[in-house]
Amino acid sequence: MSEAGAALRGYSAELRDGLSELRARREELNGRIREEEAERTRLQGQVWALSERLARTSESLARHLAARSELDRTIAETEATYGQILESSQTLLDALKKGIENAGKASEPQSTSKEKEEAAHGQKHY
Predict the structure, then answer these.
(1) Contact 125, 118 (CB under 8 A)
(2) Is 110 in a helix, a strand, or coil?
(3) φ and ψ at 98, to 5 degrees?
(4) Could you give the dihedral angle defined by the CA atoms of residues 7, 11, 16 and 19, in that order, rounded to the nearest 10 degrees?
(5) Cβ atoms of residues 118 and 124 within 8 Å
(6) Is residue 126's pLDDT more than 50?
(7) Positive or negative torsion for Cα 114, 115, 120, 124
(8) How many CB atoms lie within 10 A of CB 118?
(9) For residue 102, which of 112, 113, 94, 90 has the smallest C-alpha distance?
(10) Taking 90 as the threshold, does the pLDDT of residue 35 lie above it?
(11) How far apart are CA 25 and CA 17, in angstroms?
């Protein structure tokens, strides 16, 4: 029976060595798992922070886009109104010039047709 006992002791030693190796591998794997869990937690924190930052940036961008749109509308309306003012000013200026021209003609002494005829021929009767 000593052979059987020796074989049994040999098997037992191999089993202990195998179990020790498996436990060592498990501990190594547990270390990797803890590192990856820590990395995942760190990355989730970054994702959360970036999501918050993205949301704030999107809201700010939306406000800026709305403000720019309002400014664009105001500029377009102002330019259109300014164009109308320029047109009206030109019309008013034309009317003023015509009025001045007509007022100048009205204030000139009216000559008779006889005076015009004599002035054209260079003769005048006294």
Answers:
(1) yes
(2) coil
(3) -65, -40
(4) 180
(5) yes
(6) no
(7) positive
(8) 14
(9) 94
(10) yes
(11) 12
Structure tokens at 6: 């020796």
Please calculate the CA angle 78-83-85 and round it to the nearest 5 degrees. 95
- Give the Cα separation of 54 and 34 in Å (integer): 30
pLDDT at position 4 is 87
Distance from C-alpha of 89 to C-alpha of 83, rounded to nearest angstrom: 10
- Span between the terminal Cα atoms of the chain, in Å: 177
> How far, in Å, CA of 28 to CA of 34, rounded?
10
Tokens of 60: 């700010």
Which residues neighbour 111 within 8 Å (Cβ) at sequence distance 6 or greater? 119
- Tokens (6 digits) for 105: 């003609």
Helices (H), the chain: 2-107, 113-121
CA-to-CA separations, 28 to 1, 21, 22, 33, 56, in angstroms, rounded: 40, 11, 10, 9, 42
Q: What pTM does this model have?
A: 0.54
